[in-house]
Write a structure and sequence with these properties.
Oligomer: single chain
Strand content: 15-25%
CATH architecture: 2-Layer Sandwich
Structural class: alpha+beta
Number of strands: 5
Distance between the termini: 25 Å
Number of domains: 1
Helix content: 25-40%
Order of helices and strands: HEEEHEEH
CATH superfamily: HIT-like
Radius of gyration: 15 Å
Number of helices: 3
Shape: globular
Length: about 150
């Protein structure tokens, strides 16, 4: 199955970017998700409708994973998180997208997934300090993604 060009007015990821746009390539984009408590939560979104990873051709799947890997690498280098979580759920939209989430041992849900119940109270001072670093992180992301622009 091939990906279909995305122009569906009923599709949230056709009509909106889906978050704060960090980088846009010809086939994908990287956005920062607005997820309270998780400032370093990014999504790599395939531009066209493709519900499953196997909908992509071999070169497309390589491209997608190269971008996911570049995002992960920059987050690791710049933020030194305890762990990076990768997830491709996409149950609500027909756009393959990878969640790339920097996790820290102090975050409210660690070590559980961010969609699980909180393990502790949020640490707003650390969340704020992390958010303040994101402009530099995102500049590094744009530089790292330049080969795919």
């Amino acid at each position: 199955m091939n990906a279909q060009t995305c122009h569906d007015p009923a599709c949230a990821l056709c009509t909106t970017v889906g978050g704060a746009l960090v980088w846009q390539g010809a086939r994908l984009r990287v956005i920062r998700a607005d997820e309270p408590g998780f400032a370093a939560f990014y999504r790599v979104v395939w531009t066209d409708h493709a519900s499953e990873f196997s909908d992509l051709s071999a070169p497309e799947s390589v491209l997608c994973m190269q971008v996911v890997t570049a995002v992960e690498r920059v987050l690791r280098e710049q933020l030194a998180p305890t762990k990076i979580n990768l997830a491709a759920l996409g149950n609500m939209v027909p756009h393959l997208h990878w969640h790339v989430i920097a996790r820290f041992d102090w975050d409210s849900h660690f070590p559980a997934p961010i969609w699980a119940p909180a393990q502790r109270e949020r640490v707003l001072a650390q969340e704020t300090a992390l958010a303040a670093r994101l402009p530099e992180v995102e500049a590094r992301l744009v530089a790292a993604l330049q080969p795919w622009s």
